[in-house]
Amino acid sequence: MTMKKWILVCAAIVAGAAVTPKIFSPAETASAQEKMPPPSREAIQYSYAPIVKKAAPAVVNVYVRSRVRTFDSPFANDPFFRHFFGDAFGRPSERVLSSLGSGVIVNREGLVVTNTHVIKGGSDAAIRVALADKREFDAKVIAQDDKADIAVLKIEGGDGNFPYLQFDDSDSLEVGDLVLAIGNPFGVGQTVTSGIVSALSRSEIGQSDSQVFIQTDAAINPGNSGGALVDMSGRLVGINTMIYSQSGGSVGIGFAIPSNLVRVYAESAEKGRKVEKPWLGAKIEAMTRDFAEGLGLDRVSGAVVTRLYDNGPGADAGLQAGDVITHVDGVEVVDARAVYYRLMTKGIGRTAKLTVIRNKKPVDIEMPLVAAPKPGKGDAKNLSGNHPLDGARISNILPSVADEYNLDQTDGVVVTSVRDGSLAQQFGFQPGDVIVAIGKKKIANVDEADQALETRQQLWQISVKRGNRVLQLQVPG
């Protein structure tokens, strides 16, 4: 049988002219692939250097030194106790922690975006940023969101004329696009790595219900957190935040927070506002095979509306239980987190178009984006006193609160914040924890919780629901 000819077409641009295609035999093809020299001197000089020169001056090293109060406990060796409370419990002591990460300057006045886990340390933390030109400045935290893992710093001092990166539209990224990661891996100094966007809209790994991630194979290592992911125009498309690794080093799977979400936090902090998440007024869950079969759908994609709250924006706009949200403003959403991400980046005061599948047919719904109603004066309380919940803020579980913390229940009270350095923090309480009982008394609202904590107990017994688990806290009074 006659072997078919192999054709190799080499297209290159040399001095503005295209190279004429040439036909090679199989032997010539293999030889050419192995030994072909660069077509021109100009081709040898292709480099990312111009992009790096533009972007690198705005990427900073972030140094944090913090004093952390810890406690020694006679229960420290108990596995269950350690699982719930960690190592910090018992007799008070103090130690100094140092951490190192990266950040990105995003305006001329010295606004820096980074990850919350980079600047962890609370009010006692001393934060310094070091620029690529070796200048160093103190910085203060002006906004942070633990769930979104985004923090905004303000450089103190300087001439108000810092190098900065402009945001690019992360929605314009496509799988296969070239990107550069700039940061300070392992504390060795500013480093640049290159790669491609290997996936978009990764949502399975985040803590917040509005987190999606850009996945890249550009090498990202410890210390890169908070650093820049830039495109080929030298603009910011993401903040590097985590890696997938079993060894602690890069294995080619890194994740970055999209710039469109980071921009929301940066602009809000710059204006002195807190970021508010648009309220859907509904509970939505990721599509599963069981949901799809039950609804007669052939695709396991989208977010299913499982509950609607009366007088919420979703119900008022015409959303119905059983609807499957498939698109927001024409952009496909694969699960519930992708829906919340789209609403979050759109922002309060605007209108979103939801495309849903209802009775196997697409329906468009226009929904105004509004903030969740704030708890009333008696719906939330700051707890203080000689008890394990000192320093926690609790709230009644209103529909908007249940939506924010993804809760399925209305009984009990939910912890909405924990003051740094407080007893509640030392005992391991977290925002989203639901206090269902104190002692033998079931808790229905914040007043009952406050009253149950007024009398000092010889043994505090507190039942806490965290996710799908109920944890029992027992602490001597």
Structure, described:
There is one protein chain. The chain is of the alpha+beta class. The protein folds into 4 domains: 1-46, no CATH class; 51-275, Thrombin, subunit H (Beta Barrel); 282-368, Pdz3 Domain (Roll), CATH 2.30.42; 380-476, Pdz3 Domain (Roll), CATH 2.30.42.10. The chain is 17% helix and 35% strand. The protein contains 11 helices and 27 strands. The protein has helices spanning 26-35, 41-44, 49-55, 79-85, 259-270, 289-295, 313-317, 336-346, 399-404, 423-426, 446-452; strands at 13-14, 17-18, 59-72, 91-105, 111-114, 126-130, 136-145, 150-155, 178-183, 191-202, 213-216, 228-230, 236-243, 254-258, 282-286, 303-308, 324-328, 331-332, 351-358, 361-368, 380-382, 392-396, 413-418, 434-438, 441-442, 459-466, 469-476. Strands 21, 22, 23, 24, 25, 26 and 27 form a 7-stranded antiparallel β-sheet that branches. Strands 3-4-5-8-7-6 form a 6-stranded antiparallel β-barrel. The longest helix is centred in the middle third of the chain and has 12 residues, at 259-270. It is globular.
